[in-house]
Design a protein that fits this description.
The chain is 27% helix and 28% strand. With 111 residues, the protein is α+β, with helices and mostly antiparallel strands. The chain starts with a strand and ends with a strand.
Length: 111
């Protein structure tokens, strides 16, 4: 299994950047007739995290998801990094070639 971090070109600084989840999402509720002190924590999956990069990346995150998921699993690592998981070097080469054909140097994969 090969794991690579996903980087996109920053629309503001033009540097390759990768989103990292620092804290899990905390969801709570407001009720109409009572106080509800319940919350749940959950981590975003890879596609949810990548969608949050709209406007931050020069590449379209929805298109990035389509290309990546046609070759690999898009995930969030236990450290909170946006990663792709691939079976072997052949799949990695195909994904990198497809990303370059669609996005040029705007989307990168790094260990």
């Amino acid at each position: 299994m090969i794991r690579m971090r996903v980087f996109g070109r920053c629309a503001i600084y033009n540097d390759p950047i990768s989103p990292v989840i620092k804290n899990p999402t905390i969801i709570g509720w407001n009720a109409l007739y009572r106080d509800i002190d319940l919350t749940i924590e959950r981590r975003w999956n890879g596609a949810e995290l990548l969608r949050r990069m709209k406007g931050w990346f020069t590449a379209n995150p929805e298109r990035m998801i389509d290309v990546i998921e046609s070759h690999a699993l898009l995930q969030v690592s236990t450290d909170g990094d946006l990663i792709v998981e691939l079976e072997d070097e052949v799949h990695l080469h195909r994904l990198k070639s497809h990303l370059e054909a669609v996005f040029g140097d705007q989307v990168l994969l790094r260990p």
